[in-house]
Structure prediction request, 394 residues.
Amino acid sequence: MDSLEQFREEMRQWLLANAPKSMFTPVRSMDDLCWGGCKAQYPADVKRWLDVMAERGWTAPTWPKPYGGGGLGKAEAKILSQEMAKLGLRAPLVGFGLTMIGPLLLQEASEELKRIHLPLIVRGEIRWCQGYSEPGAGSDLAGLQTRAIIDGDDFIVSGQKIWTSYADKSDWMFLLVRTDPTVRKQDGITFLLMDMQSPGVSVRPIQLISGYSPFCETFLDNVRVPRSQVLGKVNGGWAMAKALLGHERTMIADLFKDRAPGNPLLELTRRYIPGSETRVADAILRDRIAQVEMDQACLDFTLKRSQDGMKAGHKPGPETSIFKYYGTELNMRRRELLVSIAGPQALGWEEPGFDEGELTLTRDWLRSRGNSIEGGTSEIQLNIIAKRVLGLPD
Ligand SMILES: Cc1cc2nc3c(=O)[nH]c(=O)nc-3n(C[C@H](O)[C@H](O)[C@H](O)COP(=O)(O)OP(=O)(O)OC[C@H]3O[C@@H](n4cnc5c(N)ncnc54)[C@H](O)[C@@H]3O)c2cc1C
Prediction:
């Protein structure tokens, strides 16, 4: 047996011995997963699974060991995710720490910042949120107005962020602030790391059309942030912001990889379209399902190729806009299709008359409308692809 196969076997045995039984069951929603942080309480099995995996650094398998990661090479990390997928094991930890700010810290931070923040992310002790958008700065992110003024060893930050996902559940925020209003707008921005417990920070949840309330308005009133918490250089935050968006866009597309066991489209067809037990009875529907499945397979393979590249050290570039655009548009198409298969049964808001699965179909469909907005709208992704990937003129 070669060493990788031996590693696979040992890892599999270790996973089987250490994962609580309930972690082998699929999640119903992202909220069933562990997002970490000081503000949440998790069921005992979820916490135990987080702790045993974090102990080995396998919540962040490829991050270097000195920062709490698993120190695994590309091939070993691939084996870990393959074995977890085969066993149907849940991820022990998810969140913006692992997928967004962590990778950026690894790429860009000083040794001191890495040692402070990365181990807390790996152990799920700190949950992060993203303070980019403002009431007057979404697509035109560089137009942000939240001011930060130097005062001794601190910045004093004042302004408002909006659409801050999970701000009410997070412990730290990475945010963009204006530190020089006199220069070209991209050149006066700084990237800060801020403790959400700091005096002057307040959050107010916003409710979505789906009934969920995943994000907040965040108000910053003379908040002191130590200058030691600048990532990159003062007024050099735009480069950091763009690098992070690369990680974010890949993460968003990755969310729409078809992970659910079975095939929900076919299962729903069998349930709601009479005569579809062995073959989808309606030829047009059959074609739509086949097209979505083929497009999903293409996206999955392309994402996988890109992720292998990143594990080999490639930085995410403007092509991540393709993943974000395609992944989210495909997810919206899939949700539309699921709703049209279930027909009127997918138009319920509460019981009676609709079961839990049907109510989830409706809410997930409504939630998917935000996919083409979060992380940069579809129109903005198309602009980036046209300009920076295809090299078309402005
Ligand atoms: C579910 C969800 C979660 C989010 N989470 C976060 C978060 O955690 N942190 C955070 O900071 N932000 C978050 N956002 C905010 C998101 O990044 C912004 O909503 C997005 O960037 C769009 O900005 P806007 O809402 O101000 O729309 P606008 O920028 O005002 O755009 C309005 C419309 O105009 C179009 N448009 C604008 N400019 C152009 C152009 N140049 N060319 C063509 N069309 C254009 C847009 O595509 C859009 O259709 C989240 C949003 C959603 C929906």
